[in-house]
Design a protein that fits this description.
The protein is mostly helical. The chain has helices at about 5-25, 35-60, 65-80, 85-100. The longest helix has 25 residues, at about 35-60.
Length: about 100
């Protein structure tokens, strides 16, 4: 079966542009509905969470190390650690956990 990459690129571009252009043409004024405003505010966070959480446990050799790093990272960020510190600590937790579990 012969695939034409240009058709795929055209379709991807059309979908990407439609997602951005349709709301701009349909919604002219400010959104006053509180529920809809709240929904639109949290959509980026939910999308990021849906993409990130499954890969946390699947990117490591053992799901336990990913889960421990997740819990440790949530704890550090809860107490105000910077993103660099949280990411570094989570990497260290995964490394040490897999060093113990896999070896």
């Amino acid at each position: 079966m012969q695939h034409d990459i240009y058709i795929y690129l055209l379709l991807m571009s059309a979908v990407t542009l439609a997602i951005r252009i349709v709301p701009l043409t349909l919604i002219r004024g400010q959104i006053k509905n509180g529920f809809l405003r709240s929904f639109l505010f949290y959509v980026p966070y939910v999308t990021l969470a849906v993409m990130t959480f499954p890969s946390i446990t699947e990117a490591t050799q053992t799901p336990v190390s990913g889960a421990l790093a997740l819990v440790f990272g949530i704890g550090l960020s809860w107490y105000g650690a910077s993103l660099f510190k949280v990411a570094s600590a989570c990497c260290l937790v995964v490394f040490l956990t897999e060093l113990v579990l896999v070896a």
